[in-house]
Design a protein that fits this description.
Elements: E1 2-7, H1 23-40, E2 44-47, H2 60-70, E3 75-78, E4 81-82, H3 88-101, E5 108-111, H4 118-121, H5 129-145, E6 149-151, E7 159-162, E8 175-179, H6 183-192, E9 196-198, H7 205-221, E10 231-233, E11 238-240, H8 244-264, H9 282-288, E12 292-294, H10 296-310, E13 314-317, H11 325-346, E14 365-366, E15 373-374
Parallel strand pairs: 1-2, 1-13, 2-3, 4-5, 5-8, 8-9, 9-10, 10-13, 11-12
Antiparallel strand pairs: 6-7, 14-15
Helix pairs in contact: 1-2, 1-11, 2-3, 3-5, 6-7, 10-11
């Protein structure tokens, strides 16, 4: 199993104290956590993208540029690049710049985004979000792999003899597709033979499992090499304590604050599938949902349980920014020392290893249990 630390850079105030983290401090911690993740042996660090709400990830490539300058080994990614909203020319330019700065350590995840307010904010029609996604993806793919591009589409002006600069570090980097609620995303990924990352954050596992199963069926039907049909999965938050009971009690205020915040936006689990938490209580989220809240032993057991359902080989985790900075670091250190080795011992994968010919060209993954790094 490979592990990723994801930060969408949410920045709402504390639900109990009302205290807010200053934006400069919050963004600094993103970079520091990337450095720590590399030190702890995480394989990947990802930054989200949103353009509305209490979120500071409106410029993810700027953040990834800062991370590239402070790290040397860890793979850099996005979670997700909201491609439905963006001009593929700028996406190609910005992300190829990150790819160059990191010397070929970039892979990205694309999607339509999970924030409805982004579309009117940027003057786009949300009813056409899937059309935007498909067209922008196909153009981005072309721009990254080809020079002197001539192209025409429905939603942006055509191109004649266009070449984006800089070029990617060593050829087009791999593109994953984010999957949360729609069949469209997994169908698009399967059509092109790309891997997927299931959001696996707010809903019962069956909702995500159905999409993963569909992806694998469509991927196989398209005649793609099954060795590259990788699946990743998110989580509903990571929090560790000595016992699961302690973890539940300590995490309760933050979870209840998240539920209240989504309710205040009118997100009802019955009508806003994929946007509202389907689990009203922290106990329910821990027992039946994807939240990785508990003792290290229980969290490792849960990841392996979900692997039995999803067959995923990349596990993405996030820590709550409202924990004290030292507490956030403690959770990450415990995860790296007490959870990840247990899961890795049970789940092996070729992802980002020597047999993964499509991995980021400059990425050096640690082969855990081996004595050396594998380029």
């Amino acid at each position: 199993m490979r592990f990723q630390l994801l930060d969408i850079v949410f920045n709402p105030p504390h639900p109990v104290t009302g205290a807010a983290v200053p934006p400069a401090d919050r963004l600094e911690r993103v970079v520091e956590h990337a450095v720590l993740a590399e030190e702890l042996g995480f394989d990947s660090f990802a930054v989200g993208e949103r353009h509305a709400g209490d979120v500071l990830s409106s410029a993810p490539t700027v953040i990834l540029g800062a991370v590239a300058a402070r790290t040397h080994r860890i793979l850099l990614s996005t979670g997700v690049t909201v491609l439905s909203l963006l001009d593929p020319i700028r996406v190609a330019e910005d992300l190829a710049t990150v790819d160059q700065l990191s010397r070929g350590r970039l892979e990205i995840v694309i999607g339509k985004g999970n924030e409805e307010l982004q579309y009117p904010l940027l003057g786009l029609d949300i009813t056409q979000q899937y059309e935007y996604l498909e067209e922008n993806y196909e153009l981005l793919r072309l721009l990254l792999s080809t020079e002197d591009v001539t192209w025409s589409g429905r939603h942006r002006h055509g191109l004649e003899h266009a070449t984006t600069l800089p070029r990617p570090y060593a050829g087009a980097f791999r593109i994953w597709h984010g999957s949360a609620t729609s069949e469209f995303a997994v169908d698009l990924a399967a059509r092109w033979g790309d891997p997927i990352v299931s959001a696996n954050a707010l809903q019962p596992r069956e909702n995500y499992g159905r999409l993963i199963d569909r992806y694998r069926e469509r991927h196989a039907a398209g005649g793609h090499d099954p060795a590259y049909g990788f699946v990743g999965a998110g989580s509903g938050g990571l929090f560790l304590a000595d016992t699961t009971e302690q973890a539940i009690e300590q995490y309760r205020p933050l979870y209840e604050g998240q539920v209240a915040r989504l309710r205040s936006r009118g997100y009802d689990p019955a009508t806003h599938v994929g946007k509202a938490l389907a689990f009203e209580t922290i106990e329910d989220a821990v027992e039946r949902g994807p939240a990785l809240v508990g003792s290290p032993e229980r969290v490792a057991e849960k990841i392996l349980d979900y692997h039995g359902s999803f067959g995923h080989v990349l596990q993405s985790v996030s820590v709550n920014h409202l924990l004290a900075p030292t507490h956030q670091e403690d959770v990450l250190r415990r995860f790296a020392a007490e959870v990840a080795p247990v899961v890795r011992a049970e789940v092996t994968t070729d992802l980002w290893g020597p047999r993964d010919a499509r991995r980021a060209a400059g990425f050096t993954a640690v082969e855990h249990g081996a004595a050396a790094l594998v380029a």
